[in-house]
From TrEMBL:
<dbReference type="Pfam" id="PF03949">
    <property type="entry name" value="Malic_M"/>
</dbReference>
<dbReference type="GO" id="GO:0042803">
    <property type="term" value="F:protein homodimerization activity"/>
</dbReference>
<dbReference type="GO" id="GO:0046872">
    <property type="term" value="F:metal ion binding"/>
</dbReference>
<comment type="similarity">
    <text>Belongs to the malic enzymes family.</text>
</comment>
<keyword id="KW-0496">Mitochondrion</keyword>
<dbReference type="GO" id="GO:0051287">
    <property type="term" value="F:NAD binding"/>
</dbReference>
<comment type="subunit">
    <text>Heterodimer of two related subunits.</text>
</comment>
<feature type="active site" description="Proton acceptor">
    <location>
        <position position="216"/>
    </location>
</feature>
<feature type="binding site">
    <location>
        <position position="511"/>
    </location>
    <ligand>
        <name>(S)-malate</name>
    </ligand>
</feature>
<dbReference type="InterPro" id="IPR012302">
    <property type="entry name" value="Malic_NAD-bd"/>
</dbReference>
<dbReference type="InterPro" id="IPR012301">
    <property type="entry name" value="Malic_N_dom"/>
</dbReference>
<feature type="binding site">
    <location>
        <position position="287"/>
    </location>
    <ligand>
        <name>a divalent metal cation</name>
    </ligand>
</feature>
<keyword id="KW-0520">NAD</keyword>
<dbReference type="Pfam" id="PF00390">
    <property type="entry name" value="malic"/>
</dbReference>
<feature type="binding site">
    <location>
        <position position="288"/>
    </location>
    <ligand>
        <name>a divalent metal cation</name>
    </ligand>
</feature>
<feature type="active site" description="Proton donor">
    <location>
        <position position="145"/>
    </location>
</feature>
<protein>
    <recommendedName>
        <fullName>Malic enzyme</fullName>
    </recommendedName>
</protein>
Length: 625
């Protein structure tokens, strides 16, 4: 009997046992799911020098002598077979030694030098690259992701060496359906796509924005265990309005102004149709689209395709987790969240996304009806570049309109249309000051001084803008000016602050990487048809509850990045559970929706863990095509 037939008979047997409720938890836990990653030999159709030049399969000096004979590698490598540990030890020693030498002159930051060295490893040995990244995630996440990825994107035309991902441009209109078949992988689970129009807080970087797609997918692999052979970074190049890039002879993208209106929509429509035609079950994460398109595209596709926008929904989820953590840190129950007064600086896609999610969360806690939803609106004061947003604002952004303060309200509060951030903080005395403005230093001394009068026993400051230079304030300024008892969180990493007398001011990194890998993995493993608000809410609440009571009372409201794989596993399980409850789950491979619904908490966690790829060298078997 073939292995496939045995597996099919086993699956059929288990399903029948499940239907009659006679299967035990131990049987589920011990079951060898056929979706398990990295535990089966891999068939390759190349050998000799070709396999050494393929980063997906290259093991370098770790090829065993048996594999060297089987793949015609004997004599092409030094004779000493090295273990994974020895390979990593050699690489890490080289990395520490080469950091200085890899700098491109004295103005080149060390972080970018580290990125260059890691990227070279990625180019030649993908498995080892992810092994190094996972083992040192706290040190290297800021290199492959924010803040260093912003610097990479700014310099990508000069850094580009080896193609990674796909580029769809305005010049490819009418060709995208055939273009997707140029990608070598028959299965793609995860796509991160950008149009480069709003990379972090750095503005329009055009085609160079693909660096953010690559960085995000590195974290999908490292944190969520998505198989790296089944991810695809994508850049949609519709031009750029960055005059510097338009005049740069070395720029790699289209040197024409951005498409707008229907022409722009037609390009994105064609791309979505093409990728979902070839890979019907793929998940597409939209990343760093400018605000005017972020919401429109999300609403256009979210009910039809498996997609979400991390800037709108992921940032919102992390912020909600932090806001709920702030309530816990005040010694209150999370159900008290609707009483929080929140001043939000920034009304772009991220800011509005957080506002919508926070309002829905409050409404759910207040009864989840229309009256509760309307009442929750009054807890927010939104300030943009023109000041406080009120109903008197001319040409108000439709997405910001629900949060515009009413004229009578602001009159009673001593405020007005366009009031400055400092004025708003001074009069409102908020529990939370939340920054999503991309304006570095916006929380000035005047603003922070005003927050000292907060009615909260423990006011929270969230300086969430990326990269580091765009953070609204530093933790040192926050603790020094406002006081030792505040809560502080930022989007990019900062060190903790020594407050003296053995006390520490904790700087929490409220990074999207706590959520988007788990959202993607949970959507994949549930087979959910769409990514619902409920699934996103479940992810946020899971993250909010991850910290212990003792940690939260100390002011630690986000976990350490070193725990990212465990966090992602928990978040993914919460997403799957919600997808099942909403009847959105269709199952994944040999695990159908009914089976998923029968798994208890421990079994669900085991199912997720067993489907997370690990960077272990597979046994390679050559087969001629």
């Amino acid at each position: 009997m073939s292995i496939l037939n045995r597996q099919l008979r086993l699956s059929s047997y288990l399903i029948k046992r499940l239907q009659h409720n006679t299967i035990t938890a131990n049987e589920i836990a011990a079951r060898s799911f056929t979706t398990s990653e990295c535990h089966r030999p891999t068939i390759v159709h190349k050998r000799s020098i070709d396999i050494l030049h393929d980063p997906w399969f290259n093991k370098g000096t770790a090829f065993s002598m048996t594999e060297r004979d089987r793949l015609d590698l004997r004599g092409l490598l030094p004779p000493n077979v090295m273990s994974n540990e020895q390979q990593i030890e050699r690489f890490m020693a080289d990395l520490k030694r080469l950091e200085v030498n890899a700098r491109d002159g004295p103005s080149d930051p060390y972080a970018l030098a580290k990125w260059r060295i890691l990227n070279r490893l990625h180019d030649r040995n993908e498995t080892m690259y992810y092994k190094v990244l996972i083992a040192n995630i706290e040190e290297y996440a800021p290199i492959v992701y924010t803040p260093t990825v912003g610097l990479v994107c700014q310099n990508y035309s000069g850094l580009f060496r080896r193609p990674r991902g796909m580029y769809f441009s305005a010049a490819d209109r009418g060709e995208m359906m055939s273009m997707v078949y140029n990608w070598p992988a028959d299965q793609v689970d995860m796509i991160v796509v950008t149009d480069g129009s709003r990379i972090l807080g750095l503005g329009d970087l055009g085609v160079q924005g693909i660096g953010i797609s690559i960085g995000k997918l590195d974290l999908y692999v490292a944190a969520a265990g998505i198989n790296p052979q089944r991810v695809l970074p994508v850049m949609i190049d519709v031009g750029t309005n960055n005059e510097k890039l338009l005049k740069d002879p070395l720029y790699l993208g289209l040197q024409e102004h951005r498409l707008e209106g229907d022409e722009y929509i037609e390009v994105i429509d064609e791309f979505m149709e093409a990728v979902f035609t070839r890979w019907p079950h793929v998940i597409v994460q939209f990343e760093d689209f400018q605000s005017k398109w972020a919401f429109k595209l999300l609403q256009r596709y979210r009910d039809t395709y498996r997609m979400f926008n991390d800037d709108v929904q992921g940032t919102a989820g992390v912020a909600i987790a932090g806001l709920l953590g702030a309530v816990r840190a005040q010694g209150k129950a999370m159900i008290d969240f609707p009483k929080q007064k929140i001043v939000v600086a920034g009304a772009g896609s991220a800011g509005i996304g957080v506002l919508n999610a926070a309002r829905k969360t409050m409404a759910r806690m207040l009864g989840n009806n229309e009256l509760a939803f309307e009442g929750a609106r009054s807890q927010f004061w939104v300030v943009d570049a023109k000041g406080l947003i009120t109903e008197e604002r001319e040409d108000i952004d439709p997405d910001a309109l629900p949060f515009a303060r009413k004229t009578k309200e602001i009159g009673r509060q001593g405020l007005r249309e366009g009031a400055s951030l400092a004025e708003v903080v001074r009069e409102v005395k908020p529990d939370v000051l939340l920054g999503l403005s991309a304006v570095g230093g916006l929380f000035s001394k005047e603003v922070l001084e005003a927050l000292k009068n907060s009615t909260s026993t423990r006011p929270a400051i969230f300086a969430m803008s990326n990269p580091t230079k765009n953070a609204e304030c530093t933790p040192e300024d926050a603790f020094t000016i406002v006081g030792d008892n505040i809560l502080f969180a930022s989007g990019s990493p900062f060190g903790n602050v020594d407050l003296g007398n053995g006390h520490i001011g904790y700087c929490n990194q409220g990074n999207n990487m706590y959520l988007f890998p788990g959202i993607g993995l949970g959507t994949l493993l549930s087979g959910a048809r769409v990514v619902s608000d409920g699934m996103l809410q479940a992810a946020a609440e899971c993250l909010a509850a991850y910290m212990t009571e003792e940690e939260v009372l100390k002011g630690i409201i986000f976990p350490s990045i070193s725990s990212i794989r465990d966090i992602t596993k928990e978040v993914a399980a919460a997403v799957i559970k919600e997808a099942v409850e909403e009847d959105l789950a269709e199952g994944y491979r040999d695990m159908d929706a009914r089976e998923l619904g029968r798994l208890n908490k421990e079994e669900l966690a085991a199912y997720v863990k067993n489907n997370m790829w690990n960077p272990d060298y597979p046994t390679l078997v050559y087969r001629q095509e």
